[in-house]
Amino acid sequence: MIQRFVAMLCAVGVVLAAACIDMSAPKGVASISVLQLPSLSVVLGDSMRDSNGVVVPLTVLAFDGAGNPIGDAPAQFFFTDTTTAARLTAQNLLVGDKIGTVHIVGQVGNLQTPAVDVPVTFAPVSIVRTATKTDTALFTFPADSLASLGVSPVATRVLAANDSGSNKIIVRYKIVYAPATRTGAPLPAVFLTDDNGRPASTDTTDATGAVSRKLVVLPTSLADPSLINGSRIDSAIVELSASYKGKLLQNAPLRVIVRIVAK
């Protein structure tokens, strides 16, 4: 099991794939990227912004036959449906007009990207705890089964001023304190993963504004014998942050304390 999680931690890579390739174009634009969005959603009454809160237009990257980028290739953008939830300005800025979803494609020459669904959502105002009114959750693992993994969800919601969820908002997770890892351990004693067990430090809200990452405790990596045998209780502290227009939301960074105890 440990070796499997080591592999998961190591198998992290980023690949930029071409969305469309024109094999008949030896000169000029031969391929293009997928649609480049500054964000996964656009806020009602606002233009789409990047993670720093800066208004950024939609773009498509173009490449020649040798795979070199072409900086001046003009791109066009289209809605594939008749929705009026959002509109495009002459500068290729996406503006949210009403709650809903738009479907957008980008095009350079005769090459077109796959369609991307972009929701128009309420402006995020705060990040709040879910399931409990306190900042503490209890996580236990069996002291007689130290090779096992333990998982505790760390869940929150991002809400608008009307208490509706804000959709497709990035939430960042950070472990600010955790029990020490023993020297030579192949994995940290405490780390965060997504639902598939892959290491993850961010999540994106769903339509209800909810996010959840899993706090994993690996007992075999713990350095403190008294924590392993259950004679002492420790904690992991996770901070969650989200922002809009470059400013942290209310309650951010939100601190969640997870008690760790062997039973």
Produce the secondary structure layout.
Blueprint: H1 2-10, E1 18-21, E2 31-33, E3 42-43, E4 62-63, E5 69-70, E6 76-79, E7 86-88, E8 94-96, E9 100-108, E10 111-112, E11 116-121, E12 126-129, E13 136-141, E14 150-159, E15 170-177, E16 190-193, E17 202-204, E18 210-217, H2 225-228, E19 234-241, E20 243-244, E21 247-248, E22 254-262
Parallel strand pairs: 3-11, 13-22
Antiparallel strand pairs: 1-2, 2-4, 4-5, 6-9, 7-8, 9-10, 9-11, 12-14, 14-18, 15-17, 15-19, 16-18, 19-22, 20-21
Please characterize this protein's 3D structure:
The longest helix is centred in the first third of the chain and has 9 residues, at 2-10. The strands form 6 sheets. Strands 3, 6, 9, 10 and 11 form a 5-stranded mixed beta sheet that branches. Strands 13-22-19-15-17 form a 5-stranded mixed beta sheet, with no helix packed on it. Strands 1-2-4-5 form a 4-stranded antiparallel beta sheet, with no helix packed on it. It has helices at residues 2-10, 225-228; strands at residues 18-21, 31-33, 42-43, 62-63, 69-70, 76-79, 86-88, 94-96, 100-108, 111-112, 116-121, 126-129, 136-141, 150-159, 170-177, 190-193, 202-204, 210-217, 234-241, 243-244, 247-248, 254-262. It has 2 domains: 18-121, Immunoglobulin-like; 124-262, Immunoglobulin-like. With 263 residues, the protein is mostly beta strands. It contains 2 helices and 22 strands. It is elongated.
